[in-house]
Design goal:
InterPro entries: HAD-like_sf, HAD-SF_hydro_IA, HAD_sf, S-2-haloacid_dehalogenase
Protein name: HAD-IA family hydrolase
GO molecular function: hydrolase activity
CATH topology of the largest domain: Rossmann fold
Largest sheet: 6 strands, parallel
Structural class: alpha/beta
Strand order of the largest sheet: 3-2-1-4-5-6
Pfam families: Hydrolase
CATH class of the largest domain: Alpha Beta
Organism: Luteimonas viscosa
Distance between the termini: 13 Å
Number of strands: 6
Helix content: 40-55%
Length: 236
Amino acid sequence: MSFPVRAITLDLDDTLWPFAPIGARIERVLDDWMREHSPATATMFPVEAMRALRERVWREHPHLAHDLSALRRLTLEIALRDSRGDPALLDAAYEAFYAERNRVEFYPDALEALERIAARLPVVALSNGNADLARCGIDRHFAFQLHAREHGAAKPEASIFLAACERLRLAPGLVLHVGDHVDADVRGAALAGLRSCWLRRDDHPAALADWPHQDVRPDLVFDSLAGLADWLDRQD
């Protein structure tokens, strides 16, 4: 298939890097940090209890679903409060989390492919997560980043896709959104009027072999970001 593409909007977690290893490391790092700086909190909220608290905070505050940073800070605030820890530790505890959250390990193909794509077209980071491009060392490849927290709504809401297109000053049909998530990325982008690319990596947590929806289909499907870079090269 061939069609014009003037810019790329790109998901981050599970698209440029796998998130599961990051999430596991965050739990260990936060537990170690609490054991050093707030032992009572670590005792009351070991890894499994802290995970359960985080999941409860997520459920009880759906109005913050687009703001993962706020949800994480609230989780840490409650853990410190309930364990009678020092509330003044909140900022430092969050920084311990955030530093580890941005220590990413890219998929083997991702960095080279990102460089190739960014050399051809403007690339925008469009994410529901809270990764920081500068901390991850890749901000130079992006025209800008638009997070759900900044926008006020998360993918698959059409408004976040359309806000990116507006900032690019391009019609949605000239923008290709690339991501791993069937609904948040691919279906959401397609319903917003963008072109869509499903990045279906073999190690994806959902491990879907086939496209599950009948109302829309992705314009492109690749198992690596390099596949998209190759496709763009062939459009000349």
